[in-house]
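We modelled the chain as a single entity of 222 amino acids. Its sequence is:
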Amino acid sequence: MNQVPLRQSIIDNCLRMNEIGLNQGVAGNISVRDGDVMLITPTSVPYDELRPEDIVEMPLDGEYGAWSGPKPPSSEWRFHLDIMRSRPDVQAIVHSHPMYCTSIAITRRAIPACHYMIAAFGGKDVRCADYATYGTSELSENVLVAMRGRTACLLANHGSICVGRSLSDAMWRAVELETIAQQYFNAMLMGNVAILSDEQIETVRRKGFSESYGGMDGPAPE
């Protein structure tokens, strides 16, 4: 199958991440499942210089960490690969360094149910994964823990990860998470933040929320 359109969509969404402020420079990365392989952005290449042939291909089965392409994969390939290997529901992953998500992640706190849209992420909050050096297996292990039952997480002192059943779905979720993060940040400045109860969030989920808002169907796997 011709991968060029899919590879180009990765590049287009990388450019969009920077255009809308989800990311800066060459930070962040995107991956997409294509059958039994994962396509992922290469390391340290400015997005406006990327060409479809630069996107790296990694097998989802077989030798762990194997890749093919003119350039090595993103330094964060481990958590991309580990998420896709453990979560067959995930078709795309968007990792970025947005201002408000990252600011909250620097405090190492989760984003609670400050808005009913938190239900788009699979539960009552968006957890913050414990800190580990970027690109390490330790960080990937921490991410997998934080992503249990969720479709997004923060990375302590780092950024955020959002997954989806398509690349457009993962991008939608990344934008929505940053919006909620900004709302939560501003509310904390004002004080007396009201948090919705678990029951109130579950009521939202039972209303067919995920389908109505383009999220993944039902709760993410535990």
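As a brief sanity check on the tokenised model: Confidence is low (pLDDT under 50) at residues 217-222. Residues 4-212 form a domain with the L-fuculose-1-phosphate Aldolase fold (CATH 3.40.225.10).
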